[in-house]
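To: structure desk
From: M.T.
Subject: fold request, one chain
Message: Could you run this one when you get a chance? Sequence is below, nothing fancy, just the single chain.
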Amino acid sequence: MSVVFLFQYRYATGFDWLLAVIGTLSAGALGAALPVMFLFFGELTTQFTMYGRFLQCNLNYNDCFSMGLTNVSERLFPCAVFLV
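Reply: Done. Structure tokens follow.
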């Protein structure tokens, strides 16, 4: 049995419509925020990892470079992200 979508709301009041619109807008905002949270927490994880790696050489970049804990791609990473 097929039912028209708006026919389901034939007894809805103005307040019901308002709640439906607020719920729809909230769901859209939450859906748009999800990729932003992925980027934020991904970067946060990267920073924790880099901190743990550089903690081995007392957070001195030259010591870390001499120990082989860095490479060229890490130095160019901000430039690559900027170009994307």
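Reply (cont.): The first helix runs from residue 14 to 54. Let me know if you need anything else for the meeting.
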